[in-house]
């Protein structure tokens, strides 16, 4: 939310990901961040913009959280 | 988020529910799904569209999460 | 707007209604609440989400107010 | 869009449906209206609020259109 | 909200007006409709999209309601 | 969506129209553009901002599509 | 809605209040403005951003209107 | 933002314009206001609702700012 | 709209495309999906978020539909 | 979500806070409520309006949840 | 936009201000930040959420920019 | 805003970037466009969707403008 003081000349790219988890909303967020960090360096922040889920047999099968993820372009 | 491949001729109905919990946001979501599954078959997905809560004595008394819930019309 | 302190284990359903009135916006809201109370017990709150109206001969013929109405599921 | 002149004392209910079609957006809208008319009399208007679809093998498998549908409460 | 059954081949224009009143929200709506009807025939519907007001000496000086107003193009 | 390269000193006006059609969404868009072109020169682009329709006897009576239409002011 | 011509060097603060009334939407707006004027000088404008209410025994118990209220910082 | 105290019985019309400029966002706003003032008296306020631009050869060719512009109806 | 039951441990990426067509809205959607499938495997769903078009000589020159397109990250 | 039955003559103020936590979304909400209760009596409800976070070394460093918090004005 | 790495246990408050300037949009932003810094320490970030202005004699009299401003609660 | 007449069979991709500048909003926009043009050919248009900034010692440290940027897919 607050801005860093040291990167005033950077340009960031923002991508949109959907993380999934059978466990919780927080875990779905983590799954997307974890996946993104495998191929992208310099991840800086995320924003959760949608929380959905799949229902199976009257129970939540898995959560699906859509994130905006920002990272520094080198 | 992703669509199923097999139900291209179905019509779904979407209802709006508010689940509550003294424990957590996730638990409030589960309480609404659990209640809906008592009277509706074929629940398919949900979307959490609002997270609110009641404050008592300076602490969260209970969480209130508003959900859209979709189910197949037979 | 404020939450009740006593109903932390309830699930609510939210429906959408359009009330109409030849008289006023407030009266259109009342007409929808009045109609809903005929068939639904435990109405708890409403939110007015759209105010429209019909114009006849250069004057307002009737107001149409769309409401979300929440009630307790037993 | 335009209001009828004759029903100033009515109350309407608005429900949310998702129609699907393998053919087109318009056909998905029709499938939802057609299904609704089997169980509800006095359907009056709809609004399409979301257009989505499922992709299979690089092509559109089916369209999914979310509608608000309004009908007169008797 | 409901559509008329008879005007399927019409095109409507929608304009935006701000009505003001020292008295009430409803009266501000009426002032805008009344002014529009002086120069436009075939006004059909309105939607109130914003309600504001001016405060003078700690009291409401006047209400300002922004409306979309639709009319038939001949 | 993309901007033209040659009109950097132009001012555009944007108006709002509702086109109707008994046939399809696309045809409702065309009806509004066609009507606008009778009285306005230099129409440049449109955006469809709402798709609604009227239901008669359980079937779509006509589609109503609200458009923003932009044109060059001379 | 219109701007004053004389205060081009002012800074305003905007706060959010919820006024309540058993009587009407307009009265709920007035209750919030009246309360704000007890402790804040130089109130200048308001915008009503949400209209809700509490339902008791099938009737409106009280209206709750959320306002943005702007005032001049000295 | 602040309301004038003296025009409580006026009705305003709000139109939408797109101003363009090769120089800056502020200049695009000015170009639209300047063009509007050629044919409309009593312009009162504007709101910038969208800022876009055209890119040519990897640089901004011109800015395009969409404005709502309000003026007094006499 | 409905979620698949089998991919609870996947992460999806969502990209934004604009498809164009001289023919229809549906065809503009197809052109974007077709182009995306040339370079991306595992496309799963789309959502149409904006429908615009270019007007030439008073007629629609081409439609431009902005899509969100989701695909599985391997 | 539901309104209390007993406070129809109250005025509430709504403030915006951002709570942070290294642990979870729920904990970030609690941190903001806890901080607010140190200086404000009569906190009544909250709404979570944005969920963001900071990423450090490819993992979530801390969550940042923006809340609206309502309390009774005495 | 990016988050600081060192303040994971802070709570921020967000207030809404309107800065004005006869000169430019950027200057109106600066006027609000400058005013806020007179009475608030630890200002951290802002977001411009609305750009409006007053028109006098066919020219921009002053700009009015509404800002959210975040600061650390000690 | 206006569409080009010659590219009716193109597909565009839209990406999201955040440009930063210590100087001005316009300069932050330019920094993002300049960075994008280093690796992407055929940039066509942008839309500024959010303007934020970092505050240091009571003054604006740098501006951060989030852009959607569209370019032609070959």
Can you give the mean pLDDT of chain A? 91
How many strands, what sense, and barrel or not for the largest sheet of chain A?
A: 3 strands, antiparallel
- Largest interface by Cβ-Cβ < 8 Å: B-C, 21 and 16 residues
Helical fraction of chain A equals 10-25%
Radius of gyration of chain A: 15 Å
Through-space gap between termini of chain A? 22 Å
Topology of chain A as a string of helices (H) and strands (E): EHEE
Question: Strands of the largest sheet of chain A, in order across it?
Answer: 1-3-2
Helix run count of chain A = 1
Number of strands of chain A: 3
Global geometry of chain A? elongated
What is the strand content of chain A?
A: over 45%
Q: What assembly state would you assign to the polypeptide chains in this entry?
A: homododecamer
By helix and strand content of chain A, what is the structural category?
alpha+beta
* Low-pLDDT segments, ≥5 res of chain A: 1-7
Overview of the molecule:
Chain A has 74 residues and is of the alpha+beta class. The first copy, chain A, has 1 helix and 3 strands. Chain A has a 3-stranded antiparallel beta sheet with strand order 1-3-2. In chain A, a hairpin with a 2-residue loop joins β2 (43-56) and β3. The longest helix of chain A has 15 residues, at 25-39. Chain F binds chain H through residues 2-5, 7-15, 68, 70, 73, and chain H through 15-22, 31-32, 35-36, 52-54, 56, 61-62, 64, 66. β1 (11-21) of chain G pairs antiparallel with β1 of chain J.
